[in-house]
Amino acid sequence: MRFALHVPNFAEPGEMVEMGVVAEASGWDGFLLWDHLFAGPDFPVPMADPWVVLGGLAARTNRISLGTAVTPMARRRPQKIARESVTVDQLSGGRMLLGVGLGNPPDDEYGAFGESTDLRVIAARLDEALEVITGLWSGQPFDYNGEHFTVRGAQFLPVPLQQPRIPIWVACQVPNQAPLARAARWDGVILAAMTDEAGVELPGAEEVAEAVAEIYGLRGGLDHFDVAVVTPGMPARETIQMYQTSGVTWVLVTGWMHELQALAATRP
After folding, report:
1. Is the peptide bond before 175 cis (omega within 30 degrees of 0)?
2. Average pLDDT, stretch 71-83?
3. 0.90 exceeded by the pTM?
């Protein structure tokens, strides 16, 4: 089992880069960033663009896995994400992870900027965006004609260092089962339990086991597939053991900046 810091991008950019450097030196396996534009009209705080921060981390680190958890794909241009993710993968020597999801809360991620908050539309855009991204990652001339995105004869080079592609992990709020089918088509799932206030709770071991079993059935196995669980702070040893028994491969340790700064210097 591997451990990553799951870092809100509610901070100054340099602060986040330095935390990632310390985390690698302390033995953490991953450093994954939230991908929000702002924290809502009632919570004005400094925020960093996660993709620019990832570029800085790629240049300042050598071993630790880097990525987003999660990027709301429906509000991003897939061609831009394809370029950005390959750039980070190349600069880091093949350490990029792409975590994707619908985006929460929709009113802040979409509605504040005049975009649809209809979850059916958001889900359809997410699915199409992943098809476009992986098509562009191929390095071959690519065409796509969907309801939400169109590509005509685009060829993106270079290709990712990681093959067959940069790993794509799909977020799922347990016990919600609907996103599990999407996750099963890709390379990993990020399991989280969210409160009404968007705070992080500890996912139940039974819920995690059920989600893993569902994905196992959909895929016919878990080979080359990661199961990540989002936790508030470092879980107890007994909880980690239960997760591991359920098939969890990554623990994403979440907290506010002052909490994560203290954790970054502690080997998990």
Report:
1. yes
2. 95
3. yes
CA distance 255 to 253: 7
pLDDT in tens, 246-256: 999 999 999 98
Peptide bond into 46 cis (omega under 30): no
Judge contact between 229 and 251, C-beta under 8 A: yes
- Token pair for 143: 């065409």
Question: For position 75, which CATH number holds?
Answer: 3.20.20.30
Range of the domain at 7: 2-264
Cross-strand bridge partners of residue 189? 170, 227
Q: How many domains does the chain have?
A: 1
Report CA dihedral (206, 207, 209, 213) to the nearest 10 degrees. Answer: 140
**Is the previous residue joined to 164 through a cis bond, with omega within 30 degrees of 0?**
yes
The phi and psi torsions of 172 (rounded to 5 degrees) equal -145, 130
pLDDT interval class at 257 (50, 70, 90): confident
Q: Which two tokens stand for residue 49?
A: 């663009």
Distance, CA of 99 to CA of 50 (rounded, Å): 12
Round to whole Å and give the CA distance between 82 and 64: 21
Using the 8-state DSSP alphabet, how is residue 148 labeled? S
Which of the pair, 109 or 85, is modelled with greater confidence? 85
Predicted local confidence at residue 194, as pLDDT: 59
d(C-alpha 34, C-alpha 54), whole Å: 11
Dihedral over Cα of 92, 71, 245, 26: its sign: positive
CA atoms within 13 A on the CB side of 253: 26
What's at 251, amino acid-wise? V
* C-alpha to C-alpha distance for 213 and 246, rounded to whole angstroms: 9
